[in-house]
Amino acid sequence: MGVGPGDPGNLTLRAINTLTSADLVIAPCSSPEIEGRAESIIRQALPEITCHRLVFDMSPGETGTEARVRGARQAANDLHRSLSEGRTVAFITLGDPNIFSTFALVAKEVSKLSPKTEIKTIPGIMAFQEVASLGGINLLDETEKLFLVTAREGITDVEDALRSTNAAIVIYKGGRNLVQIVETLEKANRLKGAVIGEMLGLDGESLEPLDAVTARKASYLATVIAPPLRIIEPPVD
Ligand SMILES: C[S@@+](CC[C@H](N)C(=O)[O-])C[C@H]1O[C@@H](n2cnc3c(N)ncnc32)[C@H](O)[C@@H]1O
To answer: pTM of the entire structure?
Structure first.
């Protein structure tokens, strides 16, 4: 289930109802001693809920793929007993569970291991919705399009999306290629109105116009939005 990008105020009523009625709430984490980000959202919103930490490798990118699958398989094994006893398990994840989420991998492994388990997702507010909201960006209007691309391994998908001038471009996972992203948007005359939201709702949160952040990297939890190129007609006298 999705818990939003960071601000506990983004938890939906459906998410709260699911959390309070579940037999077991599972929070993915990288180490048993360290509270994960999704867990910290639940602690702030619903301190009475106990999250059970499930350690697994969530390393993003190609190099982490094998480790992620191994981790998801292990997570499915760990959950198998509870699920086969018919318990309701809520697995919390940042943003929405159907958008670039480790949840999908875990769900796949769970259904292999326990095919009778019913798996449902509860939508969550996505990071880019929070960026658009905090940045006062009207993302789409009329016949405009939306591209949601990633830029962890390079900016090819950003360049492809830039061919459509009437499209808003959301860039996930682009923190380490931020300088290249800025240069590319600038060349395409798309820097105006573009913003970067980093660690939103979490410690270290920031939201800045993209033209103010040249020559640096951002964290993995950074989202860039370039709004569509809108030609405003000058008023007719
Ligand atoms: C693995 S994806 C998770 C996406 C998430 N499931 C969603 O629905 O938004 C990770 C990417 O989401 C974005 N992201 C997630 N949480 C964020 C936050 N708190 N602030 C800014 N960007 C965030 C970043 O672009 C990050 O690289």
So the answer is: 0.93
